[in-house]
Write a structure and sequence with these properties.
By secondary structure, the chain is mainly α. It is built from ten helices and five strands; from the N terminus they run αααααββαββααααβ. β3 and β4 form a beta hairpin.
Length: about 210
Amino acid sequence: QYWYRLLDSVEEDFPALQRLLGGEDFWRLIEAYLEACPSRSFTLRHLGHGLADFIGRRPQLAGSHPVHAMELARLEYALCESFEAEERPPVSAEELARTALALQPHLKLLALRTPADELWILDGARTIPARLLDPPKDGSQFHVVVFRFRFALQLERIDPVAFQLLKELGSGHSLAEALEETLAGADTDATRGQVGDWFRCWTERGWLRRAS
């Protein structure tokens, strides 16, 4: 009964991966994963934390699109983490310039080579559009943010420069350092002009908090 409980827990956390692989390949993958990476915690909440890495090591278990499967597993586990993560008091727009900043614990940044976000959004569609399963192109990335807003899980793609700026803030850099590091590589003045809009959006959604 415990084994079936483990299988049910993983199935609940990775519905889009199951849809991508199909039932037979999905269960073959999950059984191999659980045998190789058994639960070592009293809770099943983090049972799938190593699934994406496992697919990377054993791509032959992930059907015809192992890279898509690996990144979809990363995305779905990020959603699980975001759902359970705490939320700390956000900073207001007026505090940005004088406060050491960090990202909310529920905010997850994913740089993906495949459109895993679109695969997840299909949500029960019977067929997957062929374009979503194209082989990854060298160097191409989709910059995706997973977060909670008004008690609901959400994800969206963002500008790569905005993504890098959030990464810099999440790495502990000051606002001035993050802006200098990120905007040094910005191509146009138009990109620089978007920074104010980005911060207005982020503060409205509560993505930024005071650094500990």
